[in-house]
Every structure is written in structure tokens, then in C-alpha cells.
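Forwarding these from the shared drive since the link keeps breaking.
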Amino acid sequence: MVHNNDASALNDSPLPSTVDNITADSPHIRILVLGKTGCGKSSLINKVFGVDQTEVSHDGPGQANIHTAFRHSSNTRFILHDSQGFEPGDDTKLNIVKHFIEKLTEEEVPDKDKLHVIWICISVPRAGDRVIETGVQEVFSLAQKRKLPAIIIFTKFDMLVTIAMSEEKDAVASLSKKEMWRHIEDKAKEAFESLCVRPWRDVVGRVPLMVSTRQKYQNTIQAVIQATDEEIQQRTSNFSHTEPHSLNFTAAQRLNTDMKIDASIDIGRFKYWSGLLSKTDFSGKQLKQCLDVIHRDIVAVWNIRNSNFLASDKFKAKMIVLVDDLVSNPNTPIIGQELTLATVAALAGAATTAAGIAIIAAGVVLRLLKWIYDVYDNTAGSVACVMGYIADLTIVMHRLSSAGDVSEQTVESILVDYAKSSQISQVHNDIRKFIKDSFPFPFQDNDYIINEIIRLIEQHRVQVPLAQ
């Protein structure tokens, strides 16, 4: 590291956020949810985007206005338009929907005002019910013509489970509970294939998705999220979360944590993580500046509910306490399952001052103030700090994603739990070993460091609690 007394090496201009740059022309994803009242649209929206029921409710049944843009104070990454659907032969409502889609997909419309995704929600039918209504088919065909991602979603899959349970009552009487549920769910899936999949596949050429918002079937909601993201990327021919609509959707949804991690990696690879050896992006920057922009991008991707504290200097100070282990013990592996007691204790005293980050803990203040304001270089010390910060923050975000509303007390508790875990010991010891085995680095390979960061994240993501 270049110490901060070398003023000629400093570059005080702020580092721009990659997320902000990518989404500058369109800071949100705009979604039209089409479906009849009572088909489960609100429950699906609440689950996917982590918003309250009251935030997506209307004053009464059938009062949805497709032109009303619903914005949610607790999740500003998406804008919702709701249509109550239409009955067969109701050309007036059908034409309103079609005109809305046509208007918001015109080339001259600014991207922030365009429609980006349609979810067509249909309650699972019973035998004999009409599955593909002409109006819905017309809307889907229009979306295809306009190159607009459209996902067909049959809601309330659990109703098919209930029906199968009644019809198969005698067949499962002698089975164990586990065998009974497997049999019932297999029958429900067979019914879904027969009633929903085959008609849509045969007539429209598209396989619809099934969904239930019951906790037992959370995997069905995960499938809707994944399919939507894949459709967005396919339509834009940019198979990465550096595509603005894909990035906004990934940030807006709060259930699929794997997508959050993948997006964080894509954003990092796109700019700052990839330049750790060449140091082009961080030239003349203090480590604090480097870590600040990395922090901002990762927190923006995770978009955790009520996450203002996560963007604060106080939270950054707590993260720096964790990373300081790699500075104060660069060559000494952690023995046991936790960091030193002093580090765990220092988390509670991490705070900020007007001059910047300071750690309120005996024996820690001067050391942190020294290295955090050093100028980044591509030597072992700087690289280890950045690697540790990225890995630790990603893992902490993953843990926080299952916590619901994030208070300062919740963050503190999760940080302490992580600091006491074997996971942080493994991560930091892996970084120590990598630095020891790799330095001096192969500077001709710009991906050498980022590949190790990705390996660390991939290796440790499965050990983190999944979102509920």
C-alpha cells in the first residue's frame, strides 16, 4: 500500500457506482400484472418483491386501473401496473390493455417510462374450464410482437393439490406421510400438465408456470423469478445482469438470493473487481474510496427492505472491523471457529466521526485509520483487503436477506454471528493462502483475482441461511 502521506499519489474524485451508471436511464423495472380479481396477483407480488399487502391492494374488488402506476416506498426498484383482466367478449377492457401495451412500448418512449415485463396470471382451472381465452391469447401475441417479456402464470397450484388429496383419499390410506404427499403432489402436477401446460403448448407454443404462495411451494415462486429474468435477458440479447432491466428486476425481487449473488458478481466483473491487478479504476484512490464504491454496488443489488443503515458509514465501519483481521494478521491463520474476542467486541463499538471512519475499541483505532486511508496498490495487502471486504459483505447480505426488516440491532447480531462462525475463518484463511501462494501476482491475467473471489463466494454461498 502507498501510505497517505504521499499526497501526490492521491486522487480525490469520487468513484462512480456501476449500478447507478447501468440504470441511469431506467432506475426501475415496470411490470404489468394482468389477471382477474381474486386470482392471487397481490399475494404473488408481495412474495416476490417483499412489500406489504396494503401496498398493492385496491379500495375494492374490480377497481384496478391499468394506467395507475403503483410505487412502493419500501421497494423503489419496481413500478406496478395492475389490470383486473376481462371476460370473454369484453372488447372494451381488452382494447384498453392492448392500447396501454402499444403506447408504453413505442420506440420514442423514454426507457424509464416503458413497459418492461408482463405477468399474465390465471387461476388454475378445473376440468372442463376454458384455459386459453381469446383476449389473453391476443395480449400474449401482442407482447411477442413487441418483443416484450411475457410470463404465463397459473396461480393457486395448491388448489390442485387439495383436489388430488380428495380424489386420492383411498389410494393413499396405507402410505406413510412422506409417500402420501409425494403421491398427491405427483397427481397435482399431472393435472397441471393436462389442464394447463398441454393447451398452452399446443395452441400458443409456450409452457406456462405454476405457482402457489404457500410457504411449502416457495420453489414455484423462485421459478417465476428465474423465468422472468431469463426472458428479459433473452429479449435484450444481453445474458448478464449488466443489462439494466435484468439488473433492476434482480434488485427488485427479494426472494431469489442466488440471483442476487450472480448479479453482484456480474456487476463486479463488469468493472471494479476486474481491475484489481491492473489498478486502472483504483489509481490514486484510498482504500476507503475503493471499498465505498464496492459496498454501494453490492448493497444496491441486494436492495434489502429498510436498508438505509446498510448504506451508512457506521455499517461500513463494522465491516472494516471484520476485514481488519486480514491486515493485523496477514500471515496468521485463524485458529478455531471465530475471530479474536477483541474483534467481536469491537463490532459493538464501531462508529464514525466527522473525519471519517473510526473504530471505538482500544488498540484498534490507530491501525484502522492508517490502512483505510492508504492508497490502493496491487500488492498483497491491498488485494487481500478488497477480497475480504467483497466476500464478507456478500455473505453478510445473504444472511441479512432472511431477516425481514433490517434494524441496526439485527445487523449487529448477524455480524457478531458471522464473526463467531467457522465460515469467516475459512474465508479469511483461504484468502491468506491464496495471497501467499500467488504473490507476486500474474499481472498479465486480469481475471486472476476475480476468479478467486468468485470461487470464495460460490464455495460459501450454500452455508448461508436461505431467504424465507
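-- next protein --
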Amino acid sequence: MQLLDAYVSTTASVSARHKVVKDLPSTLAVDAASCALRRGDVRRAVELLEQGRTVIWTQMTRLRTPLDSLQTCSDHAVALREKFRDLSSLLDKPPANYTEGTPSVNVEAEEIWYRRLVEEWNRVVEEIRKIDGFSRFLLPPSFSDLQDAARDGPIIVLIASKLSCDAIIIPCMQPPTSIQLPTNFERLQNLVLALDEARQKEPNAKGHQRALDDVVGPVVEHLGAFAQSGSRIWWCPTSLFNFLPLHAAGEYYRKHGQLLSQLYISSYTPSLTALIQARRKHDKSPSVPFAAVGQNLPAGASFTLECVEPELELVRSLLPPSPTVSFTKITSVDATQSRALHALRDNTWVHFACHGTQNYEEPFKSAFLMRDQPLSLLDIAQMDLSRHEFAFLSACETAVGDIHTPDEVIHLAAGLQFAGVKSVVGTLWTVDDETVKHLVEAFYTNFCSDGKMNSKRAARALSRAVQSLACNKDIPLDQRIVFMHIGI
């Protein structure tokens, strides 16, 4: 795992790092974790997963690590802090975009320069680790560090390896529990394909629900020891599990006929570290800066999204008035890529209503489509959103991911969380206008019911909104379960 991290870190561009990861075995981390489980070392399995997954995101966030606590140390420590910050800033800048005719000597020179920067950065990190209290600075986290992710509810890590398929329940104070699941890698592959095919052909189909229940059922049978009914749980899926709507599991308690959503409030996290970082506290503005950005006819689109403009006004009407919320609305005529970027930068609460696309070949080109050009995942990844509270992504395919590198979790919703947004609502596939209209209204009605804004209430508000859709028989099953929550 350390060699993997070191190898990827010497590559300058995000797209080049993705190509490197794509060329490596996609099951490296899950296979290592599965081997640790076979030895009975559950804690080590969790550590290996955290070290070997979301490598690209981890390296990007590593360069933005705050070191304010070094300010009160010695002059040498302060000098190291400044050097770390300067080198990190250089490494975090996008590399030059060379045209096809650029001499190879220029490209090679930049690659050599970048590798030397990485080497110097590594030396500075080693020096920082010699300072009292910083011995584990930027080292892979231990299980005791990672267990803090479960402080508000248990984490369920799902491991899909060709060696075995397992679940690990991580509570906050108790030892982790591993469960061997009654499925295998091949059956999971078939389930992912079958669910996708069924969703496209018959949106109300429930024929494959039992196979999904076989995955979730054994987990829920153990959850009672760690979580009360009605409390929150977090799913951290790996490999093929990333492509299953785990929050929508059905009636695994056959005699009671209870759905998972009736017992627990499900959220997702791409990694344990991402959830821990999302809980970092920052000073908040007395007035919540909230931007609603809509684009109904982006560049190249063949039809207009008629629901976008009414949706922006609906969101405004359901939010608390000023001075609790300082509301900005950017309508389709003004929603360019640049304007959307500025709105995202300047407002710690955002709502996007537009076309969304997942680019399956180059996932960092996944984007929200604006009037002139796309607002891409790469654009978002290069932003510091560490003070941002909430994002609602009312767009298609914002939490899909890349089948070639599933454990890198490269999609718009995860990108916003890794950039710093604490709480994100996204979509697993395409979403239709009728679903959006009903769900957005139900969500914000629940979210802002007492006139206060708290990003930690998003998961519960979404759960209640989805349950309200279940009463509407005109909305097919695939649309009732399309929205999911990531983060705190």
C-alpha cells in the first residue's frame, strides 16, 4: 500500500493519476483486507482499506492539511510549516496543458521538476514528524484513529473481494465485528448488472430485492447491539458494493415486513477519514449564505429542463427568511461555469438544479452543465470548501462512480465532500422532474421545519422526504430511491 501511494504521488496531473490507478489491479485493497479478516485481524483489515482506497482524493487533501498548531512551536517548526505550505501549494496547482506538438523534452522537464518537488515535500514531512506531538503526521491512520468516525453512529464497511465478501461493523466504543456475507464476487457482479437492467426496463421491478436483502439482512441482524431503531448508520461500500442502493434494502425481517429505512437512517461515506474530516468544526457566519444555482438549457442541450426555474423559487420559499439565511439565486440566463464556481466558493450552502453527467472514461470530467461550459469535478476538486456545510445536487448521476476504479469513489457528490462540504445529497442515476418537485419540497420542509439551519439534519430530512414519496404510487420505485446522503 505504501508503494502504491508513493508511485501515484509522483504523477503531476489528476487525470494521469487516475490512469495509473486504472492500470493497477482494482481489488488490491479489498483483497488485502480480506486476507487480514481470514487471519482474524479485523482492525488491520480496516486500516488496509483506508490506506489502499481513495488514493487520489487522499493525496489531494494531504496537500491542504492545516498546520496552525506549529505556529506556537519553535522558529524551526514555524519555518517547516511555511515550507510545507509553499511546497504543497506548488504541488496542488494544475500542471500545464501541453498541446500535441509540444516537444517531449519540455514535458519530461516538467515531470522531473514535479518529482523533485515531491521528494522535497517528503523530506519536509519527515522533519515535521521529528517535532514533539507530530510523530504520526500524514502517516496512514491507525484503527483507533479511524474508529472516531463512528462517534455519531456505527459505520458498516462492505468488502467485495474475489476471496470473500464481508461486512465490518465499527461502533464508537466497542471492538469491530466482522460478518461473512452469504454472497460472492460473481453473484454481486450479476446483481449489479441485473439491478441496472431492471431499473431501465421496469422501474417498479422488485425481483432482485431479495438478493440485495441477502447482503444487508445479516448486517442489520447484528446492528441491534450497536444502534437503536431510528438512529443513524453510515455505509462505507467498497468495490461492487459502491453500485448498490444499500439504503433501499427491503423486507429482510420477513415476519415483521420492515424496510431498512423504517429502522435506521442511512448515510454513506467514501472513507472513514472523509467522515472524520467532515466533522471538523469551523467558525460559522451568523447568517447562512445560501446559493441556488439553476441551468435549464446548457451548451449543447437538445431540450429545456422546465422544472429548474420553479425549483429555485421553491427552495427560496422554503428556507428561513433573512437574516437567518442570506439567499442568492442564479437563474439559467446567468448560470455560466464561472458564475457557478463563484457561487460555490462564496456560499457555504448550495443547491444545484441542472443537468448532471458522469463521465465513465474520464470521471474527473463529470460535471454540472452550465450555459457556456461544464462545471467539472476537476474544477470542484481544486477548490478549498473546508468551511462549507451543505450541498443539494438536484441533477442526474451525481453519485454514480467509475466502474474501472470503484474504490477511488470519483463522482460529483464525493468530490464535494473531499473538497470540504460536510453534508451532500446526490443521485445514483437519472432523476425525473416529477420526483425532483416532490422530493425537494418534502426535503426542505423537513430540513427547515423550526426555522434553523443545521447540516447534520440533512440525512433525517431526506429519509422523511423519501418516505413521503412512498405514498405516491405515480412515482416508480427507482425514482423513490434515487437520492442518497453523504457525510455528517
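The longest strand covers residues 288-294. DSSP finds 19 helices and 14 strands in the chain.

- D.
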